[in-house]
Amino acid sequence: MVRVVLVILAVGALTASANAAEPRSHLGRQVEDFALKDYRGKTHQLSDVDSKLVVLAFLGTECPLARLYGPRLAEIERRYAERGVAVLGVNSNVQDSTSEIAAYARLHKLDFPIVKDLGNRLADQLGAVRTPEVFLLDARRTVRYWGRIDDQWGVGYVREEPTRHDLIEAIDALLAGEAVARPITESVGCHIGRIKTPSADAEVTYANQISRLLQRRCVECHREGEIAPFALTEYDEVVGWAEMIDEVVREQRMPPWHAAKGQVEFGNDRRLTDEEKQLIHDWVAAGAPRGDESQLPPPRQFTSGWRLPREPDAVVPIIPEDQEPFHVPPRGEVRYKYFRVDPGFTADKWIEAAEIQPGNRAVVHHVLCFARPPGLAGGLSEGGAGGYLVGYVPGLRPQPFPQGMAKRIAAGSELIFQVHYTPIGSEQLDRSRLGLVFADPNTITHEVQTTSAVGRGIRIPPGAPNHKEEAWSRRPLNDARLLSMMPHMHLRGKAFRYEAVHPDGERMVLLDVPQYDFNWQTAYQLAEPLRLPEGTRIHCTAHYDNSDANLNNPDPTQSVRWGDQTWEEMMIGYFNIAVPRSAEESEGEGRSAPADRRSAMVAIVARRLLGDLTPVARARQIVARYDSNRDGKVERDEVPQRLQPIFDALDGDRDGLLTEAETAASLERLSRQ
User: Fold this and answer.
1) What is the pTM of this model?
2) Which of 108, 272, 454, 615 could bond 664 through an S-S bridge, CB–CB 3.0 to 4.6 Å?
3) What is the rounded distance in angstroms from the CA atom of residue 244 to the CA atom of residue 226?
4) Concatenated DSSP letters of 154-177
């Protein structure tokens, strides 16, 4: 089963151990009879439930854990219905409407009733704190178990399978006439949105300070249709999440930012100031008052449906509109899917901003897009897909490149999309798409390239709590400006550091992430492009926790090697650089580039490469310069992206490697064209 990693995006941000410090006096008490209506208007009375046991499950429509555990509760009810067990969902959130409850039940195919607890009366009677949180009642409707459903999902971790099925174990014990071995467990989830009594003389109000703070810091993600699980654009919604907001800000889980302070300033730093944190705390402590609505700021404006600086010039669907969307099964492993798309670009396109928009954020964990130039051989994988263009991963926000800088998609290129789907318990459909904002070629002075320091030889021993791996950029950087960095590891990733190593040996820490989180793959963007001395190389150091103390760890008994799947590992220090456009590259930009013209250009470049040298001498120089791992051969990814078409022309046998003999023979052949 593929790990449902996407949920950590919200679970790690919105959950905390819940009721360890809450009163436990309701355990062993009889629940008073109640009558509440479901979202269809039908009344459900506890005394009318003709079952041996009743599970009261407190749920919310937008809490990520409640979304996951709804289908789990439905499975439990189907499994135990004939043995006299009923499940009754309870929604006490002030911010959840009956129509939202209906949509939640429909989306997750929940057959058990969900009643609306107006005024939080039932939640208060039972002392319920979080969603999801369950109370198991016996035949006398006495609480015999209180807490979580199981331990598969928690704060900052997700397991392949639960190690404890707490609710099921409690049900089995009661049906067998035995005492529940663990009658209390700690719930994790979102605070129930209770009705509040605001202070009349509060200095901090939503209308005055909090709405402005949320607009600055939160609504880019917390708005309708975006990646966050709920919107923070209206008071009636925000007030229901007030305690949850205070908690995650106080514990520094929100806004997500994992870089330590250092020598480099980042333009997309998300950290709140101490003053901003105090404003939130004071507002919640005062009962989350609305304030004078005339003080509300105008709504923050965004590009419709996108995070791009303006409407995209081209929208490329990953699956054409005339084809069926991709069907994501309810459970099981979905290996990476690859889609090939011809965008129909007959001329080079310069990209100043790009965004991949998931069609179904519930199941799309990540999407990577590569631009593969015409004539490039290779399979549909990262290694054979050409140049990295853009990605969508949890926590990554699209940012336009600095003025005068852009990525180039060569004429005739096809786009390769790698998509990772994560089942959520119900069948889902997806049709993701790519938005591109073009730049005027005449304004571009620098080409942006994505490169990396990669440690493919990683081997993490079983049980190692702090295993270290290192990697270097493939070649020295010359006349390059550093724009951004994005570390990438999987579930055992613990910490990641970038250093610039200058030719004289001086080291500069560029980025230090002491607590790496797979579920927040941030691209750390420099406030200003950083000019690196000629000959600088990027050195990356990664640490991994393969011990059982890492709750995300799929199996601490296994040695872990490189692999695409999340239970395997990676070490990639991605970074964007900008290099000046040469006169040759600038000449004729924006015009079409048919295969015959491209072939002629390659032949011209080959003759220029030779100069006064023989093919053998130049081949020796080429291999010596680009053979970064010193194995006597040049691999395709050892040369810069802009030179890879030349590599392909020299690679006569199409094996993805260049030897001195092959390079010399190809240079001689091309020079005669």
Assistant:
1) 0.70
2) 615
3) 19
4) ETTEE-SS-S--HHHHHHHHHHTT
